[in-house]
Amino acid sequence: MRKESRRNGTSVDLSGGLLRKVLVVDDEPDLADLAVALLGAHAVDAAVAYSAHEALQVLETDKEIDAVVSDVMMPGMTGLQLADAVREMYPGVKIILVSGYMHASLLVGRERQYLFATKPYQINTILGLLHS
Which of 51, 58, 99, 111 gets the highest tally of CB atoms within 10 A of its CB? Predict the structure, then answer.
C-alpha cells in the first residue's frame, strides 16, 4: 500500500537539482508513516513503501521519485540489496540508508557507497543528507 504526502504541488530545491519526491522504505509502518509526515511538514513530497519489493514497484511507476530513504534491516530483500538494485536501475536516484542495528563503518569498503543515518534519526539529519 502506498501513501503520498503533497505540499501545494511544489518541489524542494536541493543543491545539484530539484527534488520532486522522496520514497521512504521501512517494514515498520509506524516509522515509515512518521517519516513521510515529517518530510511533508518540511514541504517535501513523499511516498511510502513497506518493503523493498514494494519500493521497486513504486519506482517503476512513479518517475518523480528522486531519492530513496530506506531502512537496512528488512525481511526478504534488505535495504542494502534494495540500494544496489536502485543504483543499477535508477542511477540518478539518491539513496540514504538508515538503521538502528548497523554502524556506518559496515558500509566502508563496499563497491557502492551510500549515505547513512543511524536510527533514531532527527528529520533534519535526513533533510541535510537530501541536500548533500
Answer: 99
d(C-alpha 22, C-alpha 39), whole Å: 9
**What phi and psi, each to the nearest 5 degrees, are found at residue 60?**
-65, -35
CATH number at residue 119: 3.40.50.2300
Cell output for 32: 515509515
Q: Is 43 left (phi over 0), alpha (psi -120 to 50) or beta?
A: left
76/52 Cα distance (integer angstroms) = 8
User: For the chain (length 132 residues), average pLDDT per consecutive 10?
Assistant: 41 57 98 97 96 98 97 93 96 94 64 86 95 90
For residue 82, the tally of other CB atoms under 10 A from its CB is: 26
One-letter identity of residue 57: Q
Instruction: Report how many domains make up the chain.
Output: 1
Report pTM: 0.84
